[in-house]
Design brief:
single chain; alpha+beta; 6-stranded mixed beta sheet; 4-stranded mixed beta sheet; 21 helices; 21 strands; extended; Retrotrans_Pao; DNA/RNA_pol_sf
């Protein structure tokens, strides 16, 4: 759903486009010779939040830091299942896309007609535009483009009156140096004059990403018989409106690009901004569909770009860090300054986690000392922070190969080796791919790593090591899913014999803290996959303690892995875990307590009821005499 300008003169109405919510259609509204991702055609509306800048930055950082190791929900909750049911029931394929119903909440309130309020908001947007003719002209072009592309249509007066419930969306321009026209942003939480009805999905409300992703998945499902490979690739490798994948050779890449383009066109999702590290593939892509148009592929340098926030040099086919913020002035020596610098370092795969963990530890120490966001750091923390910030510029030279196998033509036997370790301040896991070719060549490379800080509440080192093992299992699960490896082709290495002894045991024997984590570890791995390695050979040790950028270069042990990984498993310096283990690990054993309730039997003769010993003995004798007499009479009766 999108907007168009009215026919009035510039001062009064060039920007006057009232948007009304109606049925959504995902995808382009008519055939277009240009290939583009539909996300580019739909304006994005930011949600208003009451959180401060610091809290938002902190949430953003932890979201990235938790990538790949976050605990997963197995089932959908009731709200998610209801949303999926609505999409399934309302989905209809149109000529150039899908039509979906809005995800209304149960017992939704009746929306009032906010035309007057929206009109006032629009007038406030027009005032600054009238003072900037160039911006006003570009904004008019952006609005007009909606009608030209079929994203919106103008309603007649009869249509406007005929519609019952109405809600108008205000909009305003947002400039971007990477876009030729201003981006039109709709304010979904409030509301906008001529009235236009939007035909395509508007981003801004909570359900928009869900509906867009649903339409993409539905496109792959509905067309997987015609393009099975492309459908599987899109479903596996697409993220929002970006697709990143890899092929074994140029011919496969050329075929896949064509199939993906045809597949996505079926759902009304034109594709563009294609980039490849192969000149042969680039030559087959029309200029208007390339990420960098008019680029001479015969020149020495191929274009570079970003892959989901990570720098990608197509010429060398290497990945690195996008560090544009390094040239900015240094951050202030405050807790807020640490967080801003830390959040700006985008490292979802954890290549620089031994360096990043130092800043995370420093940030935690500011919390433990009770420092406020804008309070100056104490001298000892300020020195550590300045040293860390000065090293960041060294990351500019950091790069790792995107494709780690030297010769694609060879057949490689792959294993995932995951190291884990814990210290007093943090725990970490690092996953390495170890591949052996049929010719006996070995390749080993870091795939992904993650670090976590220890709790402010004191945690014992053995418990910390067990938390590192849990992190290793979650990390291995994510990596195996992406690489298509079976979880049995994973080996885990730890230098903690205590944690390994717990993993070899049964969860029910341990206290809840250990039992819960051992249960999760055993649900995704087998005890025979766990091995003990010496601390000096445990590469995760530097990630749990922190180190400088100089120690994590592309040719370092941190990236290439320990040397013993490039040998046969039988030659590895690993030990077996003993069945019987000393006292430290047994401290977590659950103690069994048995309770026995004894009911005292009543005495036949209660001595406390008699005043003298003689009387007690006399009565006792009488009772025994009577018992004997009764027994004798019973025997006489039997003899008869």
């Amino acid at each position: 759903m999108q907007c168009i300008n009215g026919t009035r003169e510039v001062r009064a109405g060039a920007f006057r486009a009232i948007c009304r919510v109606d049925t959504l259609r995902l995808g382009d509204c008519r055939p277009s010779p240009r290939l583009q991702w539909s996300g580019e055609a739909c304006p994005v509306c930011p949600r208003s939040e009451d959180e401060g800048d610091a809290n938002r930055e902190l949430r953003k950082f932890w979201d990235v830091d938790s990538f790949g190791v976050r605990a997963r929900l197995v089932t959908l909750h009731a709200g998610e299942q209801k949303a999926l049911d609505i999409l399934d029931q309302s989905c209809k394929q149109q000529e150039f896309g899908y039509q979906l119903g809005l995800l209304w909440k149960t017992n939704r309130p009746s929306l009032p007609n906010n035309y007057d309020t929206a009109l006032k908001r629009l007038e406030s947007v027009e005032r600054p535009l009238l003072k900037d003719p160039k911006l006003a002209e570009e904004y008019i072009k952006a609005i007009n483009a909606y009608v030209e592309k079929g994203f919106a249509r103008k309603l007649s007066e009869e249509e406007r009156v005929k519609h019952g419930e109405q809600w108008f969306l205000p909009h305003h321009p947002v400039l971007s140096p990477h876009k030729p026209l201003p981006r039109v942003v709709y304010e979904m939480n409030v509301c906008v004059p001529d009235v236009y009805e939007m035909n395509c999905l508007l981003f801004g409300d909570k359900s928009s990403p869900c509906e867009a992703n649903y339409a993409v998945i539905r496109t792959t499902e509905d067309n997987k018989e015609e393009w099975p490979v492309a459908a599987a690739v899109v479903k596996r490798d697409i993220f929002v409106d970006d697709l990143y994948t890899s092929c074994y050779d140029d011919d496969e890449a050329i075929t896949l690009r064509k199939d993906v383009t045809n597949l996505m066109a079926k759902g009304g999702f034109p594709t563009r901004k294609w980039l490849s590290s192969s000149r042969k593939v680039l030559e087959t892509i029309p200029e208007e569909e390339k990420a960098v148009p008019n680029k001479n592929v015969n020149s020495r340098e191929l274009p570079s770009g970003r892959a989901l926030g990570v720098k990608w040099d197509a010429k060398s086919d290497n990945l690195g860090f996008a560090l544009a913020h390094i040239d900015r002035p240094k951050a202030q020596n405050t807790k807020r300054g640490i967080l801003k610098r830390l959040a700006a370092l985008y490292d979802p795969l954890g290549w620089a986690s031994p360096y990043v963990v130092r800043a995370k530890i420093l940030l935690q120490r500011t919390w433990s000392r009770g420092l406020q966001w804008d309070e100056q750091l104490p001298p000892d923390l300020a020195i550590e922070w300045q040293k860390w910030e000065e090293e960041m510029i060294w990351l500019k030279a950091f790069s790792v190969p995107r494709y780690i196998y030297r010769e694609p033509s060879k057949v490689w036997s792959k294993f995932l080796i995951v190291f884990c370790d814990a210290s007093e301040v943090a725990y970490a896991a690092a996953a390495f791919i170890r591949a052996k070719s049929t010719d006996g060549d070995y390749v080993c490379h870091l795939i992904m790593s993650k670090t976590r800080l220890m709790l402010l509440k004191t945690v014992s080192i053995p418990r910390g090591e067990l938390m590192a093992c849990q992190l290793a299992v979650r990390l291995a699960k994510s990596v195996c899913e992406q690489l298509g490896l079976d979880k049995c082709r994973v080996k885990y290495l730890s230098d903690s014999t205590t944690a390994l002894w717990w993993i070899k045991g049964e969860p029910r024997k341990f206290r809840p803290f250990v039992a819960n984590r051992v249960a999760e570890i055993l649900s995704e791995s087998d005890p025979i996959q766990w091995h003990h390695v010496g601390t000096k050979l445990n590469i995760a040790d530097i990630a749990s303690r922190g180190t400088s950028v100089a120690d994590i270069s592309a040719d370092s042990t941190w990236i290439q892995g320990p040397e013993f990984l490039k040998s046969e498993f039988s030659e590895w310096p690993v030990d077996k875990v003993a069945v019987d283990f000393p006292e430290p690990s047994q401290a977590e054993l659950k103690k069994s307590v048995l309770k026995v309730k004894v009911a005292p039997a009543k005495p036949v003769i209660d001595p406390a009821a008699y005043s003298s010993w003689i009387k007690l003995t006399r009565i006792t004798v009488w009772i025994f005499r009577m018992c004997n007499n009764l027994r004798n009479k019973r025997n006489e009766y039997r003899d008869r």
